[in-house]
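Quick one, tokens below:
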């Protein structure tokens, strides 16, 4: 079935229907364009989100990536970044393959439809012009035939009039004959125009208009097919990136399964364990035995606790070497030569260091004083400016504020720590990456 045969008399319906089809294509293009804008905004927000939570180089978060749960979060951010790229690709492909393509095709359809409707209008105007000629010819024939009849009646009446001369009769007959001849000519012209119109009308309704309508039908069916392909592309554009999106999601899942809570605990232990033994029990001192003791301010007085000793000597540099034992070894990745509370406990209150013998106790405390001799302050070898705040909460470290300038007294030995000093003679270690360091030449 075709429009030219079945809809031969529905030109206005075909006109409205084809226009409605073009409007639908335009509406779909607008829909897809708004969808791409949503995808682009979504991708932009995801980019900003991953950037917001990604650690800066040298930051504390980046240093904590040795733990699997911290590293897993960074992997999640990386996978999300790749996922965002696929959302951007969806928007780009929809814009190119659907919006731009259909917009270009829509312009071609509009031109084609305009051309077909112009042909139909031209054929219709030609038929209307022929019909107008036919109508004029018909009216002229009708008018001239009435005049011929009147002239014939007049001639007959004159011929029967006894008072009419022979010349009057002859004149009336000539007039009737002339009118009859003119009427015959109009009749022939009318017949010719009628034949011409019928032929052109037949051409119009059986050839010209069916051809135009069938071309419009073909155009509309091609439009429908193209639009249907655009519908498919709408889904396929996203489906084509689904394997990569799936890999991103699988990567996120894999990062979660790779988190090893036990291993993270081991990493923390290996990073911060001191390696020293726990302090032994403090032995009971029996005052009932009448042991003579020196006054509280004497070097042989009752030994202070480790925290009191630290408070008393907080501005001094100590050497934790026992004359009869090996040097204490700092824990891995921690500031070198910084004593912990446990170290003082081990050095001062390990089992057997205190006894009821007055001479042996005196010897122990004398040795203790020798071990903590104050060293001379080393000359600065440079300066540093703090890039970040550092709390300095661990033993052996020193706090600093962003922008603070400190003196460098010992450069980084490869363990990531630099020893610095304030003007008030406080010294301690800071992370090398937390400061800009300039050494003297």
């Amino acid at each position: 079935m075709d429009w030219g045969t079945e809809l031969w008399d529905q030109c206005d319906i075909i006109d409205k229907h084809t226009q409605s089809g073009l409007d639908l294509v335009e509406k779909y293009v607008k829909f897809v364009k708004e969808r791409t804008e949503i995808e682009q905004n979504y991708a932009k927000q995801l980019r900003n989100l991953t950037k917001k939570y990604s650690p800066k180089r040298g930051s504390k978060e980046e240093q904590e990536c040795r733990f699997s749960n911290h590293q897993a979060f960074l992997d999640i951010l990386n996978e999300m970044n790749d996922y965002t790229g696929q959302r951007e690709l969806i928007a780009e492909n929809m814009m190119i393959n659907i919006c731009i393509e259909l917009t270009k095709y829509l312009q071609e359809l509009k031109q084609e439809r305009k051309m077909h409707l112009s042909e139909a209008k031209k054929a219709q105007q030609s038929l209307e012009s022929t019909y107008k000629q036919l109508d004029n010819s018909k009216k002229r024939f009708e008018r001239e035939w009435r005049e011929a009849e009147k002239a014939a009646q007049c001639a007959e009446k004159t011929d029967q009039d006894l008072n009419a001369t022979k010349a009057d009769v002859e004149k009336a007959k000539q007039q009737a004959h002339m009118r009859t001849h003119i009427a015959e000519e109009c009749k022939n012209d009318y017949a010719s125009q009628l034949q011409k119109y019928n032929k052109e009308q037949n051409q119009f309704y059986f050839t010209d208009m069916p051809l135009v309508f069938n071309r419009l039908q073909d155009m509309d069916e091609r439009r429908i097919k193209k639009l249907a392909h655009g519908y498919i592309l709408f889904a396929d554009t996203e489906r084509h990136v689904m394997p990569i999106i799936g890999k991103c999601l699988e990567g996120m899942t894999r990062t979660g399964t790779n988190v090893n809570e036990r291993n993270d605990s081991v990493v923390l232990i290996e990073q911060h364990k001191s390696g020293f033994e726990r302090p032994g029990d403090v032995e009971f001192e029996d005052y009932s035995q009448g042991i003579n003791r020196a006054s509280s301010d004497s070097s042989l007085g009752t030994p202070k606790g480790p925290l009191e000793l630290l408070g008393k000597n907080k501005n001094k540099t100590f050497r934790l070497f026992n004359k009869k034992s090996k040097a204490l070894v700092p824990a891995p990745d921690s500031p070198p030569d910084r004593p912990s509370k446990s170290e003082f406990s081990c050095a001062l209150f390990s089992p057997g260091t205190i006894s009821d013998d007055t001479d042996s106790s005196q010897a122990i405390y004398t040795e203790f004083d020798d071990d903590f001799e104050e060293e001379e302050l080393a000359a600065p070898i440079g300066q540093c400016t703090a890039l970040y705040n550092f709390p300095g909460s661990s033993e052996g470290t020193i706090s600093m504020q962003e922008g603070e300038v400190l003196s460098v007294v010992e450069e980084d030995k490869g363990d990531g720590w630099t020893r610095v000093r304030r003007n008030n003679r406080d010294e301690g270690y800071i992370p090398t990456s937390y400061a800009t360091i300039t050494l003297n030449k």
